[in-house]
Amino acid sequence: MSDREFENYLTLLAGLLRLSGKQREAIAEELRSHLEDRLEELIAGGVSREEAVKQALAEFGDAAGLAGQFAAVSRNRKRRWLVRLTTFSVAATLLVAASLVIFWPGRNAAPGRAMAHAQSSAAAPGSAGAQQEPPKEQASAKKSQQSAADRIESELSKETSIDVVEQPLRDVMLMLAEKHSIPIVLSQKKLDEASVPSDTPVTKTLRGIQLRSALKLILKDLELTYVIRDEVLQITTPEDAESQLVIRVYDCRDLLAMQAPAGADKFVPRARAGQRGGGPGLRGGLGGPGGKAADSAEEKDRERPVSEHDLRAERLMNIIMTSVKADSWDEVGGPGSISEYNGLIVVTQTDEVHETVERVFDMLRQAAGLEAAKGTKVVR
Amino acid sequence: MERFQRDLVRGSLDLMVLSVLAGGKKYGYLIQKQVREASGSRVDLAAGTLYPLLHRLEDEGLVRSSWDDRTGRQRKWYELTAAGRKRLSVQAQEWADYAACIRQLLAIAQVKPMAG
Q1: How near does any CA of chain A get to the CA of B70, in Å?
Q2: Tens digit of each residue's pLDDT (9 = 90 or more) over A318-368
Q3: Is residue A240 a contact partner of residue A157, using CB atoms and an 8 Å limit?
Q4: Is the pTM of this model over 0.90?
Q5: What CA–CA distances, in Å, run from A123 to A203, A242, A286, A330, A332?
Q6: Which of B10, B27, B55, B57 should be substituted to probe chain A, the one whose Cβ sees the most A Cβ atoms within 10 Å?
Q7: Taking CB atoms and an 8 Å limit, are A73 and B47 in contact across chains?
Q8: Which residue in A29, A33, A73 is closest to B52 by CB distance?
Q9: What is the mean pLDDT of residues A218-237?
Q10: Which end of chain B is less packed: N or C, by CB atoms within 10 Å?
């Protein structure tokens, strides 16, 4: 005589418990028998069935809190083991840790700050600053730590499963946050504005798909989306997500330097040999200053490529602008912008577009037989 | 009657559960009920507190559990282990000493409990 509400509660609780399947089942089973005992007693005492179900669940408290209690028990269990195993090495470990904390160079510049997760609500002009950052500094910042945003990004690519029936959105997000150990927050104000309460029921069964896709599928039904902002994954409205432009620098030196197929050279029109080896060839990108190009009227709209490198860069940027959300670029009156400096492509766009841009670059690399993940392709 | 203050209860939850189990094997719901009855409803051991507590006691080897459906429903029964019995008598002694200490202090202060 188990009730649907009980099952929902227990499913949610089980989802929140980060324990092995067997342990989870055992806990759910134990709590189920308790709920049923309580239900019987309440009904015998003259309470209506519906009311009894409500009361029995209310006495249990919220699933997240209860899961947290069980989690604390299992954490302690692990800790006790750890203590047993490492009693003798604790002192040494502490000493090492302490000296690391004290002598770590430039520890004040740790997480958050070095992340260069620039956001600008103004569109194109904002991106100029990022272009001037020397690439070497970016490379070292990348290596020194994995930013919170990167961690969320990599977690989004991991597989997940979800099986919920009529669960509040808030709880479902909490469950995914727990499962993947990433911070997920609801943008309450934006959700209110869109009249999507945080307890909107969600029903979804998904197995073995990327967390990214699972989120999209769940949120799409509610006309919501997510965005990585302020080191957390925020659930918000598409309008809000699109108002947040993020600058990313994509290292495409490999794509631009790769061997062209034989005979491709003859398609390069008017490449000026004199400019090829002569310095980095800084260009303002589309819509940039472009002093050289301004001397003839025809060339105002489109700068003439001045070297093979520039031509390639131009083509690469065109691929992006035509294949990824074509109406979102400043050339056609959209908010996004793209420009190139020495093989580094600076894109100011929404997170959603960035994701696709990144995928297109990866696909190009794959098609060209280049190493896909060099770990240096994106600077946030 | 009003419930005891949470802070007062918190320190003696283990002792309550161990005492109830000293009377024999029980499952969670029964433990909860017995604590409620013994305290005249002044202690309400919430399920959300009780089950994590039972799991912790089991981890510490003070109780052991087994599944059984003799009562018509699959239930997890808990009983004291030898270590649990020992812990119970140690804690019981400690509690008696503590109560005596408080009584003594109250006697010195000449505070009398309110009638009722």
Answers
A1: 13
A2: 888 888 888 888 887 788 889 888 888 889 888 778 888 888 888 888 888
A3: no
A4: no
A5: 38, 11, 13, 8, 13
A6: B55
A7: no
A8: A73
A9: 88
A10: C
Q: What is the DSSP letter of A109?
A: G
Helix (H, G, I), strand (E, B) or coil at A128: helix
Residue of chain A with shortest Cα separation from B77: A30
Mean pLDDT within A259-281:
49
The nearest CA of chain B is from the CA of A169 a distance in Å of: 23
Closest CA to B49 of B67, B66, B31: B31
- What's the Cα-to-Cα distance from B68 to each of A180, A272, B77, rounded to whole Å? 35, 86, 7
Looking at this predicted complex, what is its ipTM? 0.86
Q: Is the pLDDT of residue B75 over 90?
A: yes
pLDDT confidence band for A109 (50 / 70 / 90): very low
Is residue A130 within 8 Å of residue A249, measured between CB atoms? yes
Nearest to A34 among B47, B49, B56 (CB): B47
Q: What is the DSSP letter of A274?
A: G
Q: Chain B: nearest CA to A11, how far in angstroms?
A: 16
